[in-house]
Amino acid sequence: MENLIPIPELCIHYSVELSFFTNLSEMGLLEIKTIKSKQYIDSNAIYEIEKMIRMHQELDVNIEGIDVVFNLLQKIDVLQNELTSLKNRLRLYES
Fold first, then answer.
1. What confidence tens digit (pLDDT) does each residue in 4-37 have?
2. Rounded to an integer, what distance in angstroms lies between the CA atom of residue 91 and that of residue 95?
């Protein structure tokens, strides 16, 4: 439980409603852990959560839009890793 952060604390800290986290969880963007009827988020997810909150609050992006953005970012990461791998393989043949 040491790596878990209670969702109500996050709601207060970031000035967001509990429903924001629930909606993120329903979209598959966030894993909520329930222990003894209290909801928590793994502390390792804070960086991603902060990006989602900024998109929502500063750019007025809804949950569906956040889902689209994060799916595209994941695809970009996969493609960048693939490109790096291919460049490395190409260097082997060029040498």
1. 999 999 999 999 999 999 999 999 999 999 999 9
2. 6
Structure tokens at 83: 């490109």
Q: Name the phi and psi angles at 41, rounded to 5.
A: -125, 140
Give the global pTM.
Answer: 0.81
Tokens of 68: 């689209």
Residues 62/70, Cβ–Cβ less than 8 Å: no
State the DSSP H helix or E strand holding residue 90, giving kind and residue range, or none if neither: helix 63-94
Q: How far is CA 26 from the centre of its chain?
A: 13
Order of strands, sheet of 4-6, starting from the edge strand that comes earlier in the sequence: 4-6, 38-42, 32-35
pLDDT in tens, 44-79: 999 999 999 999 999 999 999 999 999 999 999 999
